[in-house]
């Protein structure tokens, strides 16, 4: 039975789902060293934001197939290391959107009305009505940095509070911003005009210290900043200085450069509200993300695709549904052409034809590469690492698309150059979904792939088929089907044979000695 390690606390519903297919060990609070010790025995790892999945942990996870992040941000996982190891990384892109957006809004309102301090004051038996004069958010400018899932929900609710939304997001169109009732502006204007600024961007090289000394200098002295996205997007030292000097009015932070927050002057400031990374901490969100991620882990352990993999290019559920029958075709053709070309390929041309000549069909290129590398890497190559492995092996992959159709509505043509020269194959699907090899080295054929295959390039002349049949018979090899393809009578031709048995040693060289045979190849599919 598969084994799953759950290294942060997740909703029990997630454990229930995983238990349908695996032994589940919930072990929270482990150090990196402790995880490295035990991870080799696990097929899957599920976590939230407390576990840091380092390169060392990934590399120690020799059986790991999938790492599931019960939440959005995967910045606590070394995704490139996982990709290299062929480990799928999945997340829950939407499970905690509402929770995080509501937390940001709660932070904004708490800041504007001094709720945390007022609460403490009353609990300390005081009645300080004059000390806690607030500001209204009505008719104020809210600067939303990052108009994705969370940012858009914050914007929608804030609009209903009567706020004007200034949004900055270089990847969002003006039409989308208009739809959301937001004014798309540049960062300079957002910083200069906003009364509240809320951050909803991922942590990237571009967003690291997006708010720092220089940018704070451009803001209103009355501005209040809210960060419920990621620590490090605000330069904490610069923020502390601005809050201490009164350069800005306040800040509310749910995320920090170091988590848990260590020694910090932030704790001493009265114009700051701090929460311990609670954005996703609602009952509803925790159920959502646990179900979302546990289901994906369960599916992958059952050999099914994951719906929110962050490191498998283009394999969204819709695309997957459409391409599913062709993925096996592309992989089989890749495997076939690599064996014909003799392995050690330095180039692979992938031509997607007919209805496959669309942008969405990119996963078929990955499937073809996976097939091409499968002889060399066996189960080590998968949809996650195929492209990287090809690049590292110096295989040049060229994709072309040709929308014209011939006999089949969609077909895949591959040409590879390897130690045995350049060879090409074309494959298509029958309406029943069965695979057909329809072309070999530009010769038309029509054969199903089978476990043991023999291909010859020979001169089209009387008796040659009989000689090959007799030779195979003398070695007790049974022929399941046979086809010859040629372009002109008595010119060059190819023969494709499906065999019930593998070719015994020495037989291939006997075949190549038959007069008229120019070349012969055995293939195992
Ligand atoms: N505090 C929490 O507990 C909590 C919970 C959930 C999500 N988060 C974090 O909130 C953030 C937003 O999550 P989401 O689900 O809305 O993500 P999302 O991907 O839907 O939206 C992010 C948006 O940021 C934009 N963006 C990227 N780079 C940008 C840049 N340099 N400048 C401006 N915009 C940029 C993107 O175009 C996108 O629209 C993430 O960092 C996520 O990890 C935190
Ligand atoms: O697991 C959590 O509580 C935090 C999740 C949040 O930061 C996320 O990125 O989804």
UniProtKB/TrEMBL annotation:
Its EC number is 1.1.1.95. GO terms for biological process: L-serine biosynthetic process. GO terms for molecular function: NAD binding; phosphoglycerate dehydrogenase activity. Residues 453-525 form the ACT domain. The lineage of its organism: Bacteria, Bacillati, Cyanobacteriota, Cyanophyceae, Oscillatoriophycideae. NCBIfam families: PGDH (TIGR01327). The keyword Oxidoreductase applies. This is D-3-phosphoglycerate dehydrogenase. Catalyzes the reversible oxidation of 3-phospho-D-glycerate to 3-phosphonooxypyruvate, the first step of the phosphorylated L-serine biosynthesis pathway. Also catalyzes the reversible oxidation of 2-hydroxyglutarate to 2-oxoglutarate. The keyword Nuclease does not apply. Coiled coil: none annotated. SUPFAM superfamilies: ACT-like, Formate/glycerate dehydrogenase catalytic domain-like, NAD(P)-binding Rossmann-fold domains, Serine metabolism enzymes domain. PANTHER family: D-ISOMER SPECIFIC 2-HYDROXYACID DEHYDROGENASE FAMILY PROTEIN (AFU_ORTHOLOGUE AFUA_6G10090) (PTHR42789). Pathway: Amino-acid biosynthesis; L-serine biosynthesis; L-serine from 3-phospho-D-glycerate: step 1/3. It holds the Pfam family ACT. It catalyses: (R)-2-hydroxyglutarate + NAD(+) = 2-oxoglutarate + NADH + H(+); (2R)-3-phosphoglycerate + NAD(+) = 3-phosphooxypyruvate + NADH + H(+). Keywords: Amino-acid biosynthesis, NAD, Oxidoreductase, Serine biosynthesis. It comes from Microcystis aeruginosa EAWAG127a. Belongs to the D-isomer specific 2-hydroxyacid dehydrogenase family. InterPro entries: ACT-like_dom_sf, ACT_dom, ASB_dom_sf, D-2-hydroxyacid_DH, D-isomer_2_OHA_DH_cat_dom, D-isomer_DH_CS, D-isomer_DH_CS1, D-isomer_DH_NAD-bd.
């Amino acid at each position: 039975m598969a084994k799953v390690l759950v290294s942060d606390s997740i909703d029990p519903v997630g454990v229930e789902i995983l238990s349908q297919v695996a032994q589940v060990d919930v072990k929270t609070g482990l150090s990196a060293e402790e995880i490295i010790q035990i991870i080799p025995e696990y097929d899957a790892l599920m976590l939230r934001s407390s576990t840091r999945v380092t390169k060392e942990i990934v590399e120690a996870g020799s059986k790991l197939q999938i790492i599931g992040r019960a939440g959005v941000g995967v910045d606590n996982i070394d995704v490139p290391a996982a990709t290299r190891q062929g480990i799928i990384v999945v997340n829950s892109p939407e499970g905690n959107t509402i929770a995080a957006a509501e937390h940001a809004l709660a932070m904004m309102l708490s800041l504007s009305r001094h709720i945390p301090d007022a609460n403490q004051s009353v609990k300390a038996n005081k009645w300080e009505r004059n000390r806690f004069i607030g500001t209204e958010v009505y008719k104020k400018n809210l600067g939303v940095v990052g108009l994705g899932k969370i940012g858009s929900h914050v914007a929608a609710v804030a609009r209903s509070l009567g706020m004007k939304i200034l949004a900055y997001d270089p990847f969002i169109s003006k039409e989308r911003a208009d739809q959301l009732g937001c004014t798309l502006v540049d960062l300079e204007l957002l910083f200069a005009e906003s009364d509240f600024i809320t951050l909803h961007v991922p942590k990237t090289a571009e967003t690291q210290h997006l708010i720092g000394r220089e940018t704070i200098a451009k803001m209103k002295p009355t501005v209040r900043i809210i960060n419920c996205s990621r620590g490090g997007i605000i330069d904490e030292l610069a923020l502390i200085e601005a809050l201490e000097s009164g350069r800005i009015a306040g800040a509310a932070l749910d995320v920090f450069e170091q988590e848990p927050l260590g020694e910090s002057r932030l704790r001493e400031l009265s114009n700051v509200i701090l929460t311990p990374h609670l954005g996703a901490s609602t009952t509803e969100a925790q159920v959502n993300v646990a179900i979302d991620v546990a289901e994906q882990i369960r599916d992958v352990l059952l050999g099914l695709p994951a719906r929110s993999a962050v490191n498998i290019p283009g394999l969204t559920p819709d695309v997957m549904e459409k391409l599913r029958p062709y993925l096996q075709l592309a992989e089989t053709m890749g495997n076939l052409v690599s064996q014909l070309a003799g392995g050690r390929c330095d180039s692979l041309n992938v031509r997607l034809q007919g209805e496959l000549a669309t942008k969405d069909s990119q996963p078929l290129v990955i499937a073809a590469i996976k097939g091409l590398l499968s002889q060399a890497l066996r189960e080590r190559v998968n949809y996650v690492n195929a492209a990287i492995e090809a690049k590292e092996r110096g295989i040049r992959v060229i994709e072309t698309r040709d929308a014209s159709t011939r006999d089949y509505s969609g077909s895949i043509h591959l040409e590879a150059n390897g130690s045995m020269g350049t060879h090409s194959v074309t494959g298509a699907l029958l309406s029943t979904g069965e695979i057909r090899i329809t072309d070999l080295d530009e010769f038309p054929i029509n054969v199903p792939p089978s476990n043991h295959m023999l291909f010859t390039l020979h001169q089209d002349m009387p008796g040659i088929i009989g000689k090959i049949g007799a030779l195979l018979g003398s070695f007790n090899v049974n022929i399941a089907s046979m086809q010859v393809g040629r372009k002109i009578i008595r010119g060059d031709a190819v023969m494709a044979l499906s065999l019930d048995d593998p070719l015994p040693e020495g037989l291939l060289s006997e075949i190549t000695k038959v007069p008229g045979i120019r070349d012969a190849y055995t293939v195992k599919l």
